Amino acid sequence: MGAEVLTVEHVAFRYAGIPVLRDVNLRVEAATTVAVTGANGSGKSTLLHLLAGVEEPAEGSVRRRAGCRLALLPQRTSGIDALPLTVAECVQIGRFRPRRRLNRDDHAAVSTIMERLDLVHLARRRLRELSGGQRQRTLIAQALVQVADIYVLDEPTVALDATSRQRVHDLLAERVRAGAAVVYASHDDADAALADRTVRLAGAVEYTITDAPV
Ligand SMILES: Nc1ncnc2c1ncn2[C@@H]1O[C@H](COP(=O)(O)OP(=O)(O)OP(=O)(O)O)[C@@H](O)[C@H]1O
């Protein structure tokens, strides 16, 4: 196990005063995977938003290791369909930096991830012209092409067929072997079982953390 990259302590979160999470504690180390599971509405997306800094906790703290880079695949991404982006452009966005052109490494990383996720033949298609699974693969590619220390992915394999799921898990395993931490939400027990640790949310008041058997 590596150094801690994310530390969640006594976190509570409420939407308009309605409790969603209470007293959540979690430590995520480098080179590990954590699956966040639980029923619809149990707070998985909310927890991931807190980890990524999209939301702030009402109580407690979420600390990311200083200087650590985080890539997020949100669950709700419909806004991007309104943009006239091709698949290739959408993946390239993962490598954009202010005031800097994409360099050779960026283009190589984009090509590689598009090959690995079987997107090359779709490169010039607009996002809104894709099937659900093709669109999801494109957004996963945009997240995984980023150079990050923590990948936070909300239901990354939803809408994917078995081959694509396996490809995504292979890519995640590679990121973890390279030292990154991966946190993903999932409804699928088989998907969750691939993680080193599972956080099961059970509504506003309960959660459990389970380490995978070694
Ligand atoms: N923007 C919001 N405003 C108010 N309530 C919200 C908001 N977003 C989520 N909620 C509520 O917070 C709770 C947790 O939602 P969240 O999306 O985190 O659950 P989830 O476990 O990711 O669900 P799912 O499995 O359906 O994706 C739910 O009861 C939901 O109705």
TrEMBL record:
Molecular function as annotated in GO: ATP binding; ATP hydrolysis activity
What the entry lists under Gene3D superfamilies is as follows: P-loop containing nucleotide triphosphate hydrolases (3.40.50.300)
State one Pfam family annotation.
ABC_tran
Q: Which PROSITE patterns match?
A: ABC_TRANSPORTER_2 (PS50893)
InterPro entries per the UniProt record, alphabetical: AAA+_ATPase, ABC_transporter-like_ATP-bd, AztA-like, Metal_Ion_Import_ABC, P-loop_NTPase
Keywords on this record?
ATP-binding, Nucleotide-binding, Transport
Ranges of residues in domain ABC transporter = 6-212
Q: Which family does it belong to?
A: Belongs to the ABC transporter superfamily.
Q: Which PANTHER family match?
A: IRON TRANSPORT SYSTEM ATP-BINDING PROTEIN HI_0361-RELATED, METAL TRANSPORT SYSTEM ATP-BINDING PROTEIN TM_0124-RELATED
What name has this protein been given in UniProt? ATP-binding cassette domain-containing protein
